[in-house]
Specification:
It is a single chain. The protein is globular and about 40 Å long. 34% of the residues are buried. It is built from 5 helices and 4 strands. The protein is of the alpha+beta class. Helix 2 runs antiparallel to helix 4 and helix 3 runs antiparallel to helix 5.
Amino acid sequence: MNTLETIFTRKSVRQFKNQKVDEKDIKTILKAGMSGPTCVNSKDWSFIVVDDPEVLHKMYQANGVPAKPLLECAFAILICGDYSKAFKFSKDYFAVDGSIAGQNMILAAWSLGIGSVWLGTWPQMDRVFAQSKLFDLPNDQIPHSIIAFGYPLDEIKEKEEYYDESVIHYNKW
């Protein structure tokens, strides 16, 4: 798949086949996440890859009902902001940097035929604290988001266009 085809056809996948994802593909997805830009090249993220069904279930419990895809996915990645590496004048750039990493991973997965869905964590502090506790994270690691990955259960139909002229402004509001 070329880049634009990947971007224009990607959809959130919430139901997955009971099929493992090859370790090589997981590493490619992680490499894509680490290839995105970060504030002052801080690389202020860390990743926890989870494929243990028991741990995925605990992650689901910590994030609540919207995280139900964790119960069926092949693996998930918890993206954390790393305050020890964050831009010292504005450490919360980790949220932007984590989002860029997440989007890159989602697009890389899609190009490999692997579906995914973004499951929010930060800034819902109850979820942040629950994931921190679950993984016994050091204080400088801030859970940002979880992405569930796996092969789509159903055939993915082409999605409609999302281009909306009404939200575009040129040179003025």
